[in-house]
């Protein structure tokens, strides 16, 4: 499968909208980003994967003031699969209210639905070690 320029722009905007919706407290709009049965994998943070948009929304509200005040996404790379899915890899920066910052990698599976492109699987991995933890040998 080959992605058109329009597909690339739509998927990039989809991934970018996540930070706007979360930072604005618009968790009621998560259906515009995710499939209803999304798997939101946060196992690298010691938590169970969340299943479904409602679980993602509830987790955001439960985190409350501990949520970052700003989510930024960058370095979006898209790879089309023969089955019509798109693998999207991007970097995320989260800024907390105290000014501290954290970095993650997002690994998303994006699918075309009747309502447009949606994320069906997202794995979030914290970036805690320079050079991916690799050392020169």
TrEMBL record:
InterPro entries for this protein: NTF2-like_dom_sf, SnoaL-like
Protein name, entry field: Polyketide cyclase
Top-level lineage group: Bacteria
Coiled-coil stretches: none
Pfam family, one: SnoaL_4
Matches recorded under Gene3D superfamilies: 3.10.450.50
Domain SnoaL-like: 4-123
